[in-house]
Amino acid sequence: MRFIGKDPNITDAYYTAVADGSIAAGKPVIATTDGKVKIVATATISGSQPIGSTTLVDGNNTEMIKIVPDPFNSNRWAAIYMDDVGNKDVFMKVFTRSGTTITQSSAISLVTGGSVNRHPNIVFDRGQENVCLIMYNDNSNDGVVRTATISGSAGSETVSLGTAVDFHTPAPIYQGFRGSRDMICLDTSGNFIAIWGDASSTLEAVVFQVSGTSVTVGSIATVATDAESSAREYDMQPHASDSSKVFVAYRENGNSYISFKLLTISGTSISVSSASNSSENIEDKGLSMAVISDTKIIVGYAGPSGTGYLRYRVVTYDGSTSFSYGTEVVVLSSTVDTTLLRNNEITNSRFFPFYYVRNPGSGRRSYARSVETNADASSITVGSEDQLDSSKTAAVTYYSIGAQTDDENHYLWLGEFSSDLYFILGKSGGVGTDLTSENYIGITDQAYTDGQEATVAVVGCIDRNQTGLTAGQQYFVQGDATLDTTAGNPSVLAGTAISATELVVKE
Fold first, then answer.
1. Same domain for 141 and 264?
2. Same domain, 358 and 494
3. pTM
4. H helices within 177-220, ranges in order?
């Protein structure tokens, strides 16, 4: 490789090297170990479910479990759960990953001496590091929300609680029994939405606004009055790009169809669209969804007995209030207890895990699989079945999955076997990249074929082969060789746009 021009840091001085493969004009390239340059490319990373062994978390007859990933730290999770010994106390734990080793904090007491008997819930604030929002029924069975701020090093974390705010009295809130998403953080401005069922067939929702440790509660909105009788077969996911919109899927009471609704948030108010129904009759054994684009949603559910229990299908959203349903994909048709069907949010665009329990003839067993979609969600590919722990055959009633968005999609499964709480680390694979913060060189000045000497605009040079840039904006290299104003993973700065077609290359 060699530099041409007076100085490599002078505008329009360039770097040349042999092209490793074909490279289009205006594309970011990396240096290879043999001194060539190649276009930044994606790579599929295989999953491994599980990693390591099942590890005890709490041996005190635990139930009502929720674990969530930390958006600021891809190696950390927070969990909330209830023990069913005597007073039904609520506890919190923090889990930190280093390689394949998980360090867990001591159990942090949140609610003691009470009669809490419904799912507690937790979610991280995307705008404040170390801040979570928790929701639970207090000793009077009123719905309560408050912040929980984490401090301390891995394994020694402590939690400080904000002021408790009652938002639902006097009836208790019945949150999703089978691992549904009951609360999500909408944006980085402290806006959250929660959903729950009442004692009848009604789904309700409310907006919480968090500022520091203070919580403001909006007006409660009725989402549906025709949910299945326990109002627990539902799932909620945010729109892919519009933080004011949320999708809700639920099982209808009576006909057992899947219904979709769109919730639109304005301040602390919620408007609810009319229902868009499928014609598929499903069992009350699990319902989950993953939003993969502005128009594509994957929904997983339990089909009628004898016709294939575990199913997925692509649902297309028209951008307004209508949903259309694609062809079913049967995942598993053998004997299965799908009460615990669960997938988590899409990670790295296309991969996500799901979990279920089936009976292969020798007792109940717990399994996980990876699911992959292509770029436009026109097809679904299901990975092989991975047994979580062959030694655990007891019924698993409560569980949760926290999926991270690191390059390998690590997740932490938290669930109870014989009433004791355990965790299992796994990874569902993903779409990675050969880009690192060290190997990025610059941007090609024109197209090259394999073996040609390629000229690359390096630091200080002007790349004149772009389209649609906004002058004055910084652009980052993405793992698929595109440029975007948002940093990718890893974060690699491409440069600053000086026109719609020109970019000054920077370190």
1. yes
2. no
3. 0.78
4. none
